[in-house]
Every structure is written in C-alpha cells, then in structure tokens.
Write a structure and sequence with these properties.
Strand content: 15-25%
Largest sheet: 8 strands, mixed
Number of strands: 18
Distance between the termini: 18 Å
Radius of gyration: 21 Å
Low-confidence stretches: none
Helix content: 25-40%
Length: about 425
C-alpha cells in the first residue's frame, strides 16, 4: 500500500528526524522518503490531520482476550481490532484462557489464530502446568512454537525452589521469566489496598508488603541463579526502590506498570465500583507518584494497559465477590499521556518493551518497513462507553478526563484510521 503522511511530528529517539515535523512517504509498505515537503505527484492516499504526531508502532506487553474458553469476554479477532483502534501495532497476550497456554499446541493455536491480522500478537505462555504453581510447563517446546515469555498471569508462584529452577532452566534458550509480585499468604485474598480506605470501607486488605516481599524474594533468587526476570505491574513505592537497587547490582531485571496504577488511587473505591477492583489493587497517591518518578528515571521499563476484559456477570456483583480486572486499551493513551511526559510514554510502549521481549524494533527512517502509530497528544475529552470498542465494558476510566487521541496505525502494509 502507498501512503503520504503530511506534516507529522516524529517521536522516535532512534530516528534522525526525532522531534522534527516532516512528510513521510510510504510505498509498498516501506518508508521511501522523509522530507519537509513531499508533493503528491502520484495521487496516492494522503493523511493530513490536526496536530499529527507519529511514532513507531506501540507494543502492549499485557493484554487478555479470553479466547479460547472465555469468548463472552473477548475474542482474539475483535481484541486485535480494539488494539489497532487504540494505537497498538503489536500486543503480547496473557495465558489466562481456558484451557491455559501451558503446552506447544496451545501456543500454536494462538499463533495461527492471529495470522493475517493487522496487529501482531505474541503469546505469553504459562510458567507452570495449568497455572497451578506446582510443576514447570513445557517451556522450551513453547519457546520453539512462538512463546516470547513465561508467566502465570496474576498468579504468584509460592514455591521459591520452582522459581529458582525456572530461572536456571530458561537460560538454556535465553528465555524471559515473569513473576507476578504477590505473596499469597500476606495478600490473604484481600480485595483492596490495606490502609485507611480499606479500613473505612470494611474491605479485606492486600498490603503493600505482600508485593514487596515477593519482589525481594525473586531478586534474591535472580542474584543466585542469573537469568532474565520481568516483574509485571508493580504498584508500590518500596517496589520501585527494590528494583532500582537490583539494577544497580547489575541484575537482569525489568518491570512494568499499568495505566490504571499511574492514574488512579484507592480513593476511587468509596462507591464500591467493581471496575476499580484490579490486581494488584489500586494503591495510594504516594505510591502513584513514586511510579511516575520510576518511569522518568528509568527504573520502570515498560508501561502497559493490563487490558483484562471481564463479563458483566462477574462484575455487576458485590465488590468482594467481583473478579479483578479492567479493560485498558482504548483509554491507555489518554490516561498515561495525562500524567507522563510524551517521550517517556512513547519509550515505555515502543523501544523498551520490544527490546525486553526480543521483538524486532522498527524505526522511522528511509528504507525501513513502516510500523507507525498516528496520534494527537493534545485533545482533551471525557472517556465514556462510546469510546469502548471491546466486547466487555469494565473500564476503570469511565467518566475520567483524558488527554490524547489516537488517529490510527499503519503496519503490515495496512492502514487503520479511526
């Protein structure tokens, strides 16, 4: 496909055109020319939009689609359409399906299901069999079949020896191990951050130390074993410090934070709205500020939507009994762009996640295959149900003022414009 993008400010620190406003000509799916003014002599399709910015295509390292097994929450095909409309050209899919993704056949099903879609989908496979935390799954076979990392989504591995063995074994093929940061004996099935808000509302608390103790354990194991560890969706001030200290020691550890943990606090729980019941739970303003600082100083590597569709039957019930999770793709850019500098945001969903998950990292230069997200960072609006494309509507951002509009994506020689 041929396309001329007019007057776009390029946000790509690996490109010589970073922060410059240029025209970008794409021919047969590749960037052929970048210049201050390109004349459309061939009368090809032209994109000229208000305050247009472009970056390399966004990559979300934590999305859930339900299929197979929970298609009432979301299907893969529609989920990838939602990702495209939300500005993402690639996503990593969590293994919280039914059956779970703990063998090569399950991985191959996802790889084949995602073929020919405009958005690339990379499977994250389970670390343990049936996600029960008792025995390792077929890591090497799943790696050969296309799994890019291994972790039991939102489930902690209690057995420290099993995590040690996983870190050792994965080194044989340079595998990335994910460890959900929660000590189950301390979290005690709590549904809210343990503190003033949970006490006032009478909700069982999940304390910050439950996260921090698990992270400390895993970092000790990593120091002992070597290997590669990624800690998804950290939420507390102490967690940021623990990971910063580990990086200073030279440990190969990265971490991510979700959009809702950067934008929302546990003060939102006052009306018992189950859309705010997420895992890990929403924390305090002090924690949120520390997370933002952690992104800016480089301690936190990756920002994710942690998109997790939950059907209405499991959300429209009492807070304590509701399932944890919020959709986040559609609201991602508007939420994070409201609270972080644009360059830090883009780096956290492009260069850093692709490097960590060993995905080819494009750049906006002549001769490269075009993999581009188009957006306007200055549009302010209220997020409503009309902005949701997902099958499930369980968004923690409904009614929030957001800043930033996604125009669309160009990737795999295809264009999606909202």
């Amino acid at each position: 496909m041929d396309l001329l993008i007019k007057s776009a400010k390029i946000i790509d620190k690996n490109s010589p055109f970073h922060l410059k406003t240029q025209d970008v000509l794409i021919e047969k799916g590749k960037v052929s020319t970048i210049a201050s003014n390109i004349k459309n002599t061939k009368k090809i399709k032209e994109i000229a939009l208000d305050n247009l910015h472009i970056s390399i295509g966004w990559f979300d390292t934590s999305v859930s689609f339900g299929e197979p097994g929970f298609e009432e929450r979301e299907t893969i095909v529609n989920g990838l359409k939602v990702a495209a409309k939300s500005g993402f050209t690639a996503v990593a899919m969590n293994p919280n399906t039914n059956p779970v993704i703990d063998n090569k056949s399950a991985v191959e099903f996802l790889v084949n299901k995602a073929k020919s879609n405009i958005v690339d989908m990379f499977p994250i496979a389970n670390l343990t069999q049936q996600a029960k935390g008792q025995e390792l799954a077929e890591l090497f076979d799943m790696h050969k079949s296309g799994a890019i990392a291994f972790g039991d989504y939102n489930k902690a591995v209690d057995n420290a020896n099993l995590m040690k063995i996983a870190l050792l074994y994965a080194q044989n093929f340079d595998g990335l191990v994910l460890s959900f940061p929660q000590n189950n004996s301390l979290s005690n099935l709590g549904s809210a951050n343990e503190g003033a808000t949970s006490t006032k509302l009478g909700l069982k608390g999940n304390p910050a130390i439950a996260e921090e103790l698990q992270i400390a354990r895993d970092l000790f194991l990593l120091e002992y074993t070597g290997g590669k560890l990624h800690i998804p969706t950290i939420t507390t001030e102490k967690s940021v410090k623990l990971i910063a200290d580990a990086k200073k020691k030279g440990l190969d550890v990265t971490c991510s934070v979700s959009a809702h943990h950067l934008f929302l606090t546990d003060d939102e729980l006052n009306e018992f709205n189950t859309n705010y019941k997420v895992s890990p739970p929403l924390r305090t303003k002090k924690d949120v500020n520390s997370l933002k600082k952690g992104i800016i100083d480089g301690t936190i590597d990756i920002i994710t939507s942690d998109h997790n569709p939950i059907d209405v039957e499991n959300k429209k019930i009492e807070f304590e009994n509701a399932m944890e999770g919020s959709i986040g793709l559609e609201s991602f850019f508007g939420a994070v762009n409201e609270v972080l500098p644009l360059e830090n945001l883009i780096d956290g969903i492009t260069n850093k996640p692709r490097k960590r998950f060993n995905i080819v990292n494009p750049t906006i230069v002549e001769g490269q295959i075009a993999n581009i997200t188009l957006f306007n960072p200055d549009v302010e609006y209220e997020f409503t149900v009309k902005n949701i494309f997902s099958t499930s509507k369980n968004s923690a951002f409904l009614g929030k003022r957001l800043k930033g509009k996604v125009y669309g994506i160009f990737t795999n020689n295809k264009l999606v414009i909202n």
